[in-house]
Amino acid sequence: MGGSTWTAAVSGGAADAALGLVAALAGRPRATPSCVRPDLAGGGPGPALVYDQLERCRPGEGWGAMADGYLAASVRGTGRLGTTAPGLHAGLAGPAFAAWCLSRADPPDPSSGSSGRSESFEDETPRRAAALADGAHGVAWRDFDVIHGLAGTGALLLCRAGESPHAERSLRAVLTALVALCGERGGVPHWFTPAAAIRDDALRAHFPHGALNWGAAHGIAGPLALMALAGSAGVRVPGQDEALRRTAGRLLACRTEDAWGPGWPGITGLDGTPDPRPRSTASWCYGTPGVARSLWLAGTALDDASLRETAVRAVKAVHRRAAERRGAGPSPGLCHGLAGLLQITLRFAQDTGEAELRHAATDLTVRLARFREHGGNLAQDGPGFLSGAAGVLLALLAATTDNAPAWDRALLLA
Questions:
Q1: pLDDT digits 0-9 by tens, 235-272
Q2: In degrees rounded to 5, what are phi and psi of residue 194?
Q3: Theoretical Cys-Cys bridge with 334: which of 129, 139, 272, 391, CB 3.0 to 4.6 Å?
Q4: Distance CA 181, CA 203 (A)
Q5: How many other CB atoms are there within 10 angstroms of residue 162's CB atom?
Q6: Residues 6+ apart with CB under 8 A from 410
Q7: 343 closest CA partner among 278, 274, 287
């Protein structure tokens, strides 16, 4: 996850401006709510992660107490809302992930408080994994994705695997399911989504024979990243390396090339027909940067230099394209905005040491720091982690301090 050798990529005036913005938005340590929404995407775990990073950067000021307070309030929120979904960004795994990042004592098991059951989501996950592995050809992408599905839950299990045999067993069940998902029938991968399982009416009408989701948030790039990270950590199941090669090969086959380098679609039909709706192509969720990061991780796990080289070319191409062609959305957030592109660029800069990527990270940091000057609102999508202010602040702290951003495991970036 980047270990303890993380080095700030941004320094000087750009770093000073960014840290000044972080200080202005964070304010001063204060009392925390007693109960908040428990989801990582938009609830209390996001602020908990921010205040924990501030505690690591500026210890002794009271930020650790705020981080603990938001974590406790998130756990209480699971009970009040009756949350039972196990997903990382929308379910029980979110507060547990925040607790792991904070390195605090284990919080109360949220699944017991919210559902009255004694088993935790770690017990439920192997059942969900077995159902996916044994299921029909074609699945809804929320069953395997990072937001709601097994790839996201697997991210937390990978964090815990070295500490808990139970977590490692559950992780192996997830990996086994994802390996099965990467198989195919008649040249169509099992992870394709039938039209009946597409929730969006317009998208379902456009893809009457089903669709392939290639993105990092909802598509196959997320499972690819999890399998790669697990493999690099020494957790492998039968067929995992072959699933990595097959899936990476599919991503390479569907890429496009322009004068700047490779790029990827978000969603296509089985015949390659693209999604007609415009999407940000320079983002984590559906864009080229998220796919490129997954390919880098696969190349690392497989010791495949060509995959890593393609990934670096792709992320450089994103920055070399003119702004109007880059496809970066107006959002500052992690999911589909500037902060997500920044965090991915920081990871590539850390891994490669290339000056071009450090310069790109500095440019993005400056753009985020000036966002408010141009009438933007860093909290326009709320205070949360995935699209809101918490994610932006975390990316700015990662760019400008030497504190390793363990939190981006939630995006399966490292």
A1: 999 999 999 999 999 999 999 999 999 999 999 999 99
A2: -65, 155
A3: 391
A4: 22
A5: 12
A6: 40, 88, 89, 97, 152, 155, 385
A7: 287
